[in-house]
Amino acid sequence: MAELCFACTDREYAVPVVNVTCTICKKTVSWREAVKHYAEHGKRSGDNVACPLCGAKVKSREYRRHVRMHFVKRRERGYMCGVCGRSFITLRSLLVHIQKMHE
């Protein structure tokens, strides 16, 4: 999902942008609110929520974590945040970062 969150550059890395344009509703949101915004697009049906990004039906209690996983980019040595580009050694530390910084 890097195309959602990074400005193209002629360098070997992407530069994070201040705002993100939602691919679902085309609204421009702050990168700090990106994951929260996408999570709000979920469609509730009983105890499940349909993910707006992949269509999967996820239990309500696991839905936010599921949405966060769409912003995880696997790297050779760790993980990268798909919103701001920060790198992390463990998936857990990246998910905590996404929860604190992008929701």
Automatic annotation (TrEMBL):
<protein>
    <submittedName>
        <fullName>Zinc finger, C2H2-type domain protein</fullName>
    </submittedName>
</protein>
<dbReference type="InterPro" id="IPR036236">
    <property type="entry name" value="Znf_C2H2_sf"/>
</dbReference>
<dbReference type="InterPro" id="IPR013083">
    <property type="entry name" value="Znf_RING/FYVE/PHD"/>
</dbReference>
<dbReference type="Pfam" id="PF00096">
    <property type="entry name" value="zf-C2H2"/>
</dbReference>
<dbReference type="InterPro" id="IPR013087">
    <property type="entry name" value="Znf_C2H2_type"/>
</dbReference>
<keyword id="KW-0863">Zinc-finger</keyword>
<keyword id="KW-0479">Metal-binding</keyword>
<keyword id="KW-0862">Zinc</keyword>
<feature type="domain" description="C2H2-type">
    <location>
        <begin position="79"/>
        <end position="103"/>
    </location>
</feature>
<dbReference type="GO" id="GO:0008270">
    <property type="term" value="F:zinc ion binding"/>
</dbReference>
